[in-house]
Amino acid sequence: MIPVTKTFFPPLQEYHAQLERIWKNEWLTNRGELVLELEKKLKSYLSINNILITNNGTIPIQIALKLLGNGGEIITTPFSYVATTAAIVWENCTPVFVDIHPEYLTIDETKIEAAITPRTTCILATHVFGNPCNIEAIESIALKHNLKVIYDAAHCFGVTYKGKSIFEYGDISTCSFHATKIFHTGEGGAIFCKDEALRHKIYYSHNFGHNGPLDFYGLGINAKISELQAAMGLAVLPHMPEIIEGRKQVVEAYDRLLNFDKIKKIKIRESAEWNYSYYPVLMQSEEALLDAQKALNELDIFPRRYFYPSLNTIPYTSKQAMPISENCASRILCLPLYINLSTDSIIKISSIVR
Ligand SMILES: *Cc1c(COP(=O)(O)O)cnc(C)c1O
User: Fold this and answer.
1) How far, in Å, from the CA of 351 to the mean position of ligand 1?
2) Ligand 1, residues 178, 183, 184, 229: which to mutate, most atoms within 8 A of Cβ?
3) Pairing between strand 189-192 and 164-165?
4) Is the per-residue pLDDT at 252 higher than 90?
5) In 128, 184, 299, 350, which residue has its Cα 20 to 30 A from 52's Cα atom?
6) Residue 261 vs residues 59, 281, 282, 287: alpha-carbon distances, Å
7) Is the same domain home to 41 and 111?
8) What is the pLDDT of residues 97-137, one digit of tens each?
9) What pLDDT does 224 receive?
C-alpha cells in the first residue's frame, strides 16, 4: 500500500537510548530533562529564541485564541485542516471566513479589510502546505485595525520567510508535531511568541495556570508534552536534513514526470524557503480528481483530498459562500510524498495522474 505519507521512524536503538535516559531519571512529564533538551535543540535547529512545546498542535491554537480572541470574530481561512476552524468555535469565538488566493491557496489578504467589524479581534491564517501567507499585508492590516495575528503554521517545520523562521511571524504562531507532519513526536506541537508578557501567559495557560503548587496566575489548561514524546522528537530531529532532502527528491521527480498543461501546482510565496511537506495538485475538475483517485486506489495507492471540504461548508459554521476555496477544495489532491518513496512508484503515480 502506498499512503499519502508515512511517518518517519528513527532507528529503534536511537529511540531506545532516549528512553533509557527517562528510566534513569524516573521522570515522565512536567517539563523533564528531555523536553527541555528538545526545546533547546529545536531553537538551535530553527534559529529561533523562543519555543514552548506542547502535547499537540491544536491546543496551542486554542490557547492563542483564549488569550487574544476575547470571544470575538476571528477572520480566518476556509482552506485548512478542520482544527483551525474547530479551535475558533471551541473557544466560543466566531469564524468569519475570507476567501483564498487561487494560486497560493492562503487567505486572500485583499479581502480581509471588508470582513472586519467592531467585533473582530484576530486574524487566524494558515500557512497551508507550508506556503507562507502574505505576511506583510496581513501585518499592516492588523496594525491599522488593532487586531492580533495568529498563524497556524502546523505544516511549516523548517520553512523560512525572508531568511527567518516562519515561526517568528505573527503575535503567536503554532506548529504540529503529529505523526503525519514532517517533524514529529508522535503527538505534539509547539507555540511561538516574541512578546515576553504574552509568553508568560501562554506558559502558565499550558500548565493549569500554576505559579507554584498552591498559587495560580490565572486560568489554565493542560497542554504539556511528556518525556516519552520528547524522546521521539530527540530521535527524529537529527534526521531532519535527510528527511527534507529525501522529500525534495520526490517532489523534483513529480515535477519532471507530471504534465502541467491541465493540472496545476500551487504557487510558493516569493522569499520563502519551502519544506517539501506536501505535493498538492489542482485537477481540472472534481470529476477528473475522482477518476484519478479511483485509478490510483485500484493500484493500492491512496492520495488524500487535503483539504476537502472547504471549512465554510462544515455543519457548525455559517454558510458564507467562498467560491475560490470551494472550487479549489473540490479539485485538490495530495499525492503520496515521503522519504524513500520508490522511483517506480513515483513513475506509476505520475503516469496515472497524467
Ligand atoms: C495537523 C494540523 C493541526 C492540528 O495539529 P494536531 O497536532 O494534530 O493537533 C492544525 N492545523 C493544521 C493546518 C493541521 O494540518
Assistant:
1) 31
2) 178
3) unpaired
4) yes
5) 128
6) 41, 12, 11, 17
7) yes
8) 999 999 999 999 999 999 999 999 999 999 999 999 999 99
9) 98
Cell numbers representing residue 71 in the block? 470571544
Q: Most distant CA pair in the chain: distance in Å?
A: 65
Residue of 128, 101, 114 lying closest to 324 (CA atoms): 101
Whose Cα sits closest to atom 10 in ligand 1? Answer: 83
Same domain membership, residue 207 and residue 273: no
Domain of 205 in residue numbering reads as: 12-99+107-238
The CATH number of the domain holding residue 114 is 3.40.640.10
pLDDT, tens digit (0-9, with 9 covering 90-100), for 182-211: 999 999 999 999 999 999 999 999 999 999
The tens digit of pLDDT for each residue in 36-47 reads 999 999 999 999
Q: Is the pLDDT of residue 319 over 90?
A: no
Instruction: Please report the pLDDT score of residue 346 as a whole number.
Output: 98
Report the candidate in 269, 278, 223, 233 with the shortest Cα–Cα distance to residue 81.
278
Quick one: 175 and 256 in the same domain? Answer: no
**Ligand 1, pocket-test mutation among 53, 58, 82, 275, most atoms within 8 A of CB:** 58
